[in-house]
């Protein structure tokens, strides 16, 4: 991954993913197995950013309203104050880290962990069981009815593992990730008139900051 200022004026890819978020990073890793992939992410990298990486800074991460923070504040059309991701890894770099529903192979190699049961978590779990949210399923990544202890993307040291970590599994020879690249427009151009000569060009215009 590198800043978009290092991008050549023109380059060609089989797939261009706009937004290196939770879906974008995993999609890039998968597509890169058989195609050339470019990821354009408007934010920076999550690595080495304590506010993103440390579980204890969860609130501070969401509260940081500076112009290049990982969480961009916004107010929804119906007036709800919220935050959206502006960082490689997307929402997984600022969310609560609750992890559920995934295949065993994926979980084993990537970003999910069994959480420690601290006071709050135990009290919450016991409360749910007590009011009848049953059965109690213990720890499981499966998305099932009842009460369970789900996975988390925070490891045993309280360090967050975002979707950006999934890029480790991308083919380095076929994947390029540009940071600080905000996509403004996609231009479609038709070449020729007949159905057989129909062609579409995509142009990505991005800015640096
Ligand atoms: C506070 C909070 C807590 C949450 N807790 C949980 C939880 O515990 N468990 C859970 O599963 N989910 C949780 N979620 C939801 C989850 O994080 C999101 O649903 C998920 O990350 C969305 O993934 P996405 O790939 O659709 O979008 P995102 O992960 O948001 O990715 C979008 C990416 O696109 C980039 N981008 C946007 N516009 C442009 C542009 N024009 N040019 C270039 N890049 C661009 C953004 O910077 C971002 O990186 C939470 C969300 C929030 C806000």
Structural class assignment: alpha/beta
Q: Could you name the CATH class of the domain at 2-96 and 158-207?
A: Alpha Beta
- String of helices and strands: EEHEHHEEEHHEEEEEE
How far apart are the first and last residues' alpha carbons, in Å?
16 Å
Report the uncertain regions: none
Strands in their spatial order, largest beta sheet: 1-10-3-2
Question: Largest sheet, if any?
Answer: 4 strands, parallel
Would you identify the CATH architecture of the domain at 2-96 and 158-207? 3-Layer(bba) Sandwich
Ions and ligands = flavin-adenine dinucleotide
The CATH topology of the domain at 2-96 and 158-207 is: FAD/NAD(P)-binding domain
Strand content range? 25-35%
β-strand number? 12
User: Cα-atom Rg, whole angstroms?
Assistant: 20 Å
Q: Which outline best applies? A: globular
Helix content: 10-25%
Write the layout of secondary structure elements.
Blueprint: E1 2-3, E2 15-18, H1 22-31, E3 37-40, H2 50-53, H3 58-63, E4 71-75, E5 81-85, E6 98-99, H4 104-109, H5 119-130, E7 136-139, E8 147-149, E9 151-152, E10 175-179, E11 182-190, E12 200-207
Parallel strand pairs: 1-10, 2-3, 3-10, 7-8
Antiparallel strand pairs: 4-5, 6-9, 11-12
Q: Would you write up a description of this structure?
A:
This protein has 209 residues and is of the alpha/beta class. It has a domain of 145 residues: FAD/NAD(P)-binding domain, CATH 3.50.50.60. It has five helices and twelve strands. The strands form five sheets. A four-stranded parallel beta sheet has the order 1-10-3-2, covered by helices on one side. The chain has a two-stranded antiparallel sheet with strand order 4-5. The protein is globular, with a radius of gyration of 20 Å. The chain starts with a strand and ends with a strand. The structure holds flavin-adenine dinucleotide. Flavin-adenine dinucleotide binds next to helix 1, strand 5 and strand 11.
């Amino acid at each position: 991954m590198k800043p978009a200022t290092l991008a050549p004026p023109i380059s060609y890819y089989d797939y261009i993913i706009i937004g290196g978020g939770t879906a974008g990073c995993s999609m890039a890793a998968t597509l890169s197995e058989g195609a050339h992939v470019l990821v354009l992410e408007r934010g920076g990298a999550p690595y080495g950013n304590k506010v993103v990486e440390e579980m204890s800074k969860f609130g501070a991460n969401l509260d940081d309203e500076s112009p290049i923070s990982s969480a961009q504040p916004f107010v929804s059309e119906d007036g709800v104050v919220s935050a959206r991701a502006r960082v490689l890894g997307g929402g997984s770099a600022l969310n609560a880290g609750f992890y559920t529903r995934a295949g065993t192979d994926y979980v084993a190699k990537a970003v999910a962990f069994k959480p420690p049961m601290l006071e709050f978590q135990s009290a919450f779990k016991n409360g749910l069981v007590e009011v009848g949210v049953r059965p109690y399923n213990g720890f499981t990544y499966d998305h099932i009815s009842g009460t369970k202890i789900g996975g988390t993307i925070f490891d045993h040291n309280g360090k967050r593992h975002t979707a950006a970590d999934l890029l480790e599994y991308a083919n380095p020879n076929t994947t390029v990730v540009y940071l600080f690249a905000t996509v403004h427009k996609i231009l479609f151009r038709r070449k020729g008139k007949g159905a057989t000569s129909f062609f579409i060009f995509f142009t990505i215009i991005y800015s640096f900051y």
